[in-house]
Amino acid sequence: MDIVLQVFDNLLFDRFWATVYPSSSIPSPKTVPQMLSTSTFLSIREMHTPINASTQFLQLQPSKYAYMSQWPRDHIYRQFLSLYLITWIFGLLVYFILSTLSYYTVFDHATFTHPKFLKNQVRLEIKQTMISMPNMAFFTAALFLAEVRGYGKLYDARSDAPFALYNFLQFPLFIFFTDLSIYWIHRGLHHPLVYKSLHKTHHKWIMPTPFASHAFHPLDGFSQSLPYHIFTFIFPLQKSAFIVLFVFINIWTVLIHDGEYMTNSYFINGAACHTMHHLYFNYNYGQFTTLWDRLSGSYRQPNDELFSKESKMSKSEWRRQTQEMEKMQKEVEGNDDRHYDVQESGRLLKKVI
């Protein structure tokens, strides 16, 4: 994350912090070029230290604003607040871009007619995300801060890997570790002691849209993201690989909520498997694969009807889903406090059929 922070410092935060928290002693124009070529101040009034590049593959020359704030780039408060803003605002941008693209290009809008689609559901999904994102960003920024300040095992060049082959093995190792960890965290969130107060917020959406991908209780969403960060403190991971994987995670989170059941894979925990989880609660806790569900007895094979557009949108299939879902929902939650738009669903269903 230090690469991302360096880019944002050059593009935005150097000037932002120089404006918000300016130094009491601004360097003269004559001294700025010399400073730019050598070092920056830890404090304008104290000794100066060099600005080190976060990666050898991206050399960015600091502007004069890098030396005009009482909070230099390596100041812990500045780093935390900058990372918080990046995580929050950039997270929202990624969420809206990916979810909107999926919503208009992949998601089947006939899902609106499903008996368990909520009244104003898309608006409610976005609202919950807007509530949870700034809170999740706060906790996530603290972990990013630890990584940026060198407490993790992130490395820069491929030559810094434990051995050459590790540059390739780090990807399946990351998937294996996080899939295993998230499985047990997710399954733990279904325990009766915590389900209603934490995870039920995300299970409000029986038939989710892509906008449900980040619509969690803040502590729920953060807890399921913990393995992505814990990995970097246990195993070496290349900095650029971490950025790529972080983007992939957000894309995957949207994909498993898009309702497009592309393949009935034995191994991949895709949208079909995750739909089984939202419908029937106590199955398919995995994030990327079905491995841990199969080994732990919580796997449920998606119905064959889901892989045909005609059958997955048929009234008979929805009736069957609804009957079983209501039985499971009663066992897990008790009374159903969701608000379904029954009249609108019936009206749209007639138009679709």
Explain the overall architecture.
The protein is mainly α and 353 residues long. The protein contains twelve helices and four strands. The strands form two sheets. The protein has a two-stranded antiparallel ribbon with strand order 1-2. Strands 3-4 form a two-stranded parallel ribbon. Helix 1 (2-20) packs across helix 3 (76-105), helix 4 (121-148) packs parallel to helix 6 and helix 5 (166-189) runs antiparallel to helix 6 (218-234).
Q: Which tags fit this structure?
A:
mainly alpha, two-stranded parallel ribbon
Strand content: under 5%
| Straight-line N-to-C gap | 50 Å
Q: Give the overall shape.
A: globular
Tell me roughly what share of residues is in helical segments. 40-55%
SS field, number of helical segments: 12
Radius of gyration: 24 Å
Question: What is the residue-averaged pLDDT?
Answer: 88
Question: What low-confidence regions span 5 or more consecutive residues with pLDDT below 50?
Answer: 39-48, 348-353
The tally of beta strands, per DSSP, is 4
Main sheet: strands, sense, barrel: 2 strands, antiparallel
Q: What is the element string, with H for helices and E for strands?
A: HHEEHHEHHEHHHHHH
What class do helices, strands and sheet pairing give? Answer: mainly alpha
> How is the largest sheet built, in terms of strand order?
1-2
